[in-house]
Amino acid sequence: AQKVTQAQTEISVVEKEDVTLDCVYETRDTTYYLFWYKQPPSGELVFLIRRNSFDEQNEISGRYSWNFQKSTSSFNFTITASQVVDSAVYFCALSDPNYNTDKLIFGTGTRLQVFP
Amino acid sequence: NAGVMQNPRHLVRRRGQEARLRCSPMKGHSHVYWYRQLPEEGLKFMVYLQKENIIDESGMPKERFSAEFPKEGPSILRIQQVVRGDSAAYFCASSLATGSYNEQFFGPGTRLTVL
User: A100 to each of A20, B95, B101, B104, how far by Cα in Å?
Assistant: First the structure.
């Protein structure tokens, strides 16, 4: 069965600290997609990144970076020099496109609080 | 191009009433997904629909919940005889197609409160 685990329930940091959010996934399939979404206090879901299982290159976008390691089934997310506006719940998700549906399996989320 | 629209954004119902949640997908999208987010939890898949067809309802509760996506008009998630445990945020997402993965675009959600 597919599963996404975000073991960190809540993380608190002070502004300008770097923070890494962990995501571990389980799937028996060789083709899959991984995602990160941000849910700010306003409640909407903001798409951050999609990565397919064949692309293990790390990605950097501004202060955000992602480390995908198939060997450990992990897709971790790092925010460099965190800011108060980064305070939100972050969800990691997995999609398996092999069965005529692209439904997303979400982790339980990590609440990040960045204090000034 | 307008994004995915959901209405109402907030809905309050008393126990036993019916709740109807609407989702208008992005223009040109014919695939709709519904997810439920219980308080302090992650999103859980409920149902996947294409126009006039339910493709995957493996996440739908067996009773009181139904979904449709008619040829014309929005997708509707209907909850009959609501109970307090139905209080949650319900998100709709739409995509262009499936297969070689097409991104799901999420709506702002409907927050249902059952008194």
Answer: 33, 13, 10, 14
Check whether B107 has a pLDDT greater than 80: yes
Chain centroid to Cα A101, Å, comes to 21
**Three-state secondary structure string covering A12-23:** EEECCCCEEECC
Residue of B nearest to A109 (CA): B42
C-alpha distance from A33 to closest chain B C-alpha (Å): 8
Distance CA(A59)–CA(B74), nearest Å, equals 37
Look at A102 and B56 and tell me if their CB atoms are within 8 Å. no
Q: Given an 8 Å threshold on Cβ–Cβ distance, is B95 in contact with A33?
A: no
Average pLDDT over residues A72-98: 92
Name the DSSP letter for residue B87.
-
Q: Give me the residue label for tokens 């319900």.
A: B90
Identify the bridge partners of residue B40 per DSSP, sorted by sequence position: none
* Interface touch B99/A101, C-beta < 8 Å: no
pLDDT classification of B99: cutoffs 50, 70, 90: low
A44/B99 CB distance under 8 A: no
Among A16, A32, A15, A34, residue whose Cα is nearest residue A24: A34
Specify the DSSP class assigned to residue A9: -
- DSSP element (H, E) containing A93: strand A88-95
Section A19-41 average pLDDT = 92
How many contacts (CB atoms, under 8 Å) link A and B? 63
Better pLDDT: B82 or B104: B82
